[in-house]
Amino acid sequence: MSEEIGGELVPDSTRDLDIDGELDLMIEDLDLWYGSNQALYGVSLPIAKNSVTALIGPSGCGKSTLLRTINRMNDLIPICRYEGKITKGELVITDKGADLVELRKSIGMVFQRPNPFPKSIYENVAYGVRLHHQPTREELDAIVEKSLKRAAIWKEVAERLHDLGTSLSGGQQQRLCIARTIAIEPDVILMDEPCSALDPIATAAIEELILELKKDFTVVIVTHSMSQAARVSDYTGFMYLGRMVEFNKTEKIFSEPDQELTQRYITGRFG
After folding, report:
1. Half-sphere exposure of residue 29, counting CA atoms within 13 Å on the CB side?
2. Model pTM?
3. Helix (H, G, I), strand (E, B), or coil: what is residue 132?
């Protein structure tokens, strides 16, 4: 079924949701409202384990809203409500009784703009670890070093761990935030336009890091850059006006999409 909205023939959210490999997360028939305004319409999305799934689409289409439902960040908005289900194995993420602390430990998030704590580089990484565990100093030192290495920033900060995290460049700050996220060993990393505030060199470093991270983590990324989605993702979902118009392997989406709306968007003939 399709509906004409603003002169566009917009299909219902897709049910063509095949993936290869093991399923990590499943979003099913998700509707979401901010007050009386509906932002998501029947969105379903499978997220494969140890893969990168990209969400693309024009501004305001619901990409970031969808991303924030995965670790219940939208719960912080009083007027937000939703129906549908998100599961991770046996865990029903959308269950009202879900432990949000444990959930956000398992599903970490990296935001659009780097947001290091006003603490030292060392403490930025160590802070979350201390909240969840009681490591010895030696164990904490090892976790901080390992996390900074995995975030590909150790060599740049090894001699300045006690400098403020805010003293780093924008690209370094974003990698520090990634190190902070992975220090508590989440299963899933959500990234909301992690390169939008960075220059091309810093963006390239983050993209290389994303490809490394998927070896150990499942990554879901929101991006306005279709070239970035094509470079780093295994699967891509195209969203428009709160619907998941099309979902498939990234190569298929960018070479031979099934929906005309998707084709027009990726070729710049949109609107």
Report:
1. 3
2. 0.92
3. helix
Element housing 65 (H / E): helix 63-70
Residue identified by tokens 């997360």 is: 25
Is 71 in a helix, a strand, or coil?
coil
- Distance separating alpha carbons of residues 132 and 93, to the nearest angstrom: 20
Distance CA 63, CA 157 (A): 33
Residue 80's closest CA among 95, 98, 68, 93? Answer: 68
What the chain holds in terms of domains, given with CATH numbers, is 1-98 (3.40.50.300), 100-210 (3.40.50.300)
Amino acid at 238: F
Alpha carbon 192 to its chain centroid, in Å, reads 5
175 in Cβ contact with 151 (< 8 Å): yes
Q: Strand, helix or coil at 70?
A: helix
Beta strands in the chain (DSSP E): 2-5, 8-11, 23-34, 37-48, 52-56, 80-88, 91-92, 107-110, 188-192, 218-222, 235-240, 243-249
CB 174 within 8 A of CB 202: yes
pLDDT (tens digit per residue) in 231-268: 999 999 999 999 999 999 999 999 999 999 999 999 88
Three-class secondary structure of residue 268 per DSSP:
coil
- Cα 257 from Cα 226, distance rounded (Å): 14
Burial of 16 (0-12, 13-18, 19+ CB in 10 A): exposed
Hey, what are 104's tokens? 């956000």
Averaged confidence pLDDT in the chain = 93
Q: Look at residue 131 and tell me whether its pLDDT is greater than 90.
A: no
Residue type, 51: S
Measured between alpha carbons, how far is 78 from 72 in angstroms, rounded to an integer?
A: 12
Query: In Å, how far are 13, 255, 257 from 42, measured between CA atoms?
Result: 6, 26, 21
Answer positive or negative: Cα dihedral of 222, 43, 52, 72.
positive
